[in-house]
TrEMBL record:
The gene is hisC. InterPro entries: Aminotransferase_I/II_large (IPR004839), HisP_aminotrans (IPR005861), HistidinolP_aminotransfase (IPR050106), PyrdxlP-dep_Trfase (IPR015424), PyrdxlP-dep_Trfase_major (IPR015421), PyrdxlP-dep_Trfase_small (IPR015422). One of its GO terms (molecular function) is histidinol-phosphate transaminase activity. Its EC number is 2.6.1.9. Keywords: Amino-acid biosynthesis, Aminotransferase, Histidine biosynthesis, Pyridoxal phosphate, Transferase. Pathway: Amino-acid biosynthesis; L-histidine biosynthesis; L-histidine from 5-phospho-alpha-D-ribose 1-diphosphate: step 7/9. It catalyses: L-histidinol phosphate + 2-oxoglutarate = 3-(imidazol-4-yl)-2-oxopropyl phosphate + L-glutamate. The lineage of its organism: Bacteria, Bacillati, Bacillota, Bacilli, Lactobacillales. The modification N6-(pyridoxal phosphate)lysine is found at residue 224. It comes from Limosilactobacillus fermentum 28-3-CHN. This is Histidinol-phosphate aminotransferase. Belongs to the class-II pyridoxal-phosphate-dependent aminotransferase family. Histidinol-phosphate aminotransferase subfamily. Homodimer.
Length: 361
């Protein structure tokens, strides 16, 4: 067994919905802990999946090149097909990146806090992980701090933008200024899983950097705004030379036919994504106003969740759970991440949180 595996703690997910409902005798549980899209999935997806099944798609291996999906993504993002690598969610892409580019002599730089899988897969490969705390006041990525720890062993820097779990968005200019100062043999991978929820995704994306720098890649997923969390489709946009390396170790039939069909249908319904993002923005603003009124510290979010801190946060999370609202804990002491739900959930939850805060005063 690889030595690094001994250092890893198993992922601790929230309790399954049915188990929680049974335990607390709930008729409904709003799962606001996994940053899923509460507005469902484009109706075009269901239609496309039914047609694919009726056409007898299940007894044949899938298109190993994801040709239709590749062509559509390339067209929408204005990138060449051979710049794209598709995976079973971004989880597989992150794993492939670590497997392809990291050795036990390497160092990886990540923010603290950040998506845990960056560090997890680096550790599996035996690489050292250097965590750079975010700005404690604003939650922004500490670019100066990251540059200070980069050395000749640094092979990879992860930037989640907007960051999970803080929700904070860095500007493309700030990221490019950072890239210019990073050694050319150090990779800078930018995870834009939540970018669709930003106020202006077109201005916020770092995709143009992929054309200007040979050490930059951008990651996207259909699990969030597109509502395909259960389907598992993610991809990387990267320079052709880097993409070719990942293609060498990618499993030949990693993306099944139904996943490809669902992804194509979802990508063709941009109206669904825009409407979901617009609803999210309204509810996100309500939460920020609420926390401001209550004097609760939070980080300004451009994602579909908000990260906040209160004393005895575990008790608040348990109180909400028993009332039918599941939020994410276990990220940092006394911090909670709340996936932003529909208006009806916002109203009820804010009343519950306000009541809990009064009891704590």
């Amino acid at each position: 067994m690889k030595a690094g595996i001994n250092q890893i703690q198993s992922y601790v997910p929230e309790e399954p919905v049915q188990r929680v409902k049974s335990k607390y005798h709930l008729k409904r549980l709003a799962r606001l802990s996994a940053n899923e899209n509460p507005y469902g999935t484009s109706p075009l997806v269901k239609e496309a999946l039914i047609n694919a099944i009726n056409d007898g798609a299940l007894n044949r291996y899938p298109d190993g090149d994801a040709s239709e999906l590749r062509a559509l993504v390339g067209q929408q993002l204005n990138v060449a097909g051979d710049q794209l690598v598709f995976g079973v969610g971004l989880d597989e892409i992150i794993e492939l990146v670590a497997r392809a580019f990291l050795t036990p002599d390497d160092q990886v730089v990540v923010a603290k806090p950040a998506f845990s899988e960056y560090a997890l897969h680096a550790t599996v490969e035996g690489a050292a992980v250097k965590e750079v705390p975010v700005n404690p006041a604003t939650g922004h990525f500490d670019f100066a701090g990251a540059l200070a720890v980069i050395n000749e062993a640094t092979r990879l820097v992860w930037i989640c933008n907007p960051n999970n779990p803080t929700g904070v968005l860095e500007s493309p200019q700030a990221i490019e200024d950072f890239v210019r100062q990073v050694p050319k043999d150090t990779l800078v991978f930018i995870d834009e899983a939540y970018l669709d929820f930003a106020d202006d995704p077109a201005k916020a994306t770092c995709l143009p950097l992929v054309k200007r720098y040979q050490n930059v890649a951008v990651l996207r997923t259909l699990s969030k705004a597109y509502g395909l969390a259960n389907v598992r489709v993610g991809f990387a946009v990267m320079p052709v030379a880097l993409a070719a390396i990942l293609q060498k170790i990618r499993l030949p039939y990693n993306l099944n036919t139904l996943a490809q069909v669902a992804a194509v249908a979802a990508l063709r319904d941009q109206d669904f994504v825009k409407k979901a993002a617009a609803k999210n923005a309204v509810e996100r603003a309500k939460w920020e106003d609420f926390f401001d009124q209550q004097g609760v510290k939070y980080f300004k979010s451009q994602a579909n969740f908000i990260y906040f801190t209160v004393k005895n946060a575990a008790d608040l999370a348990q109180t909400l759970l028993e009332k039918g609202f599941q939020v994410r804990r276990h990220l940092q002491p006394d911090w909670l991440r709340l996936t932003i739900g529909p208006a009806e959930d916002t109203t009820v939850m804010q009343a519950l949180v306000a009541d809990w805060l009064k009891q704590q005063a």
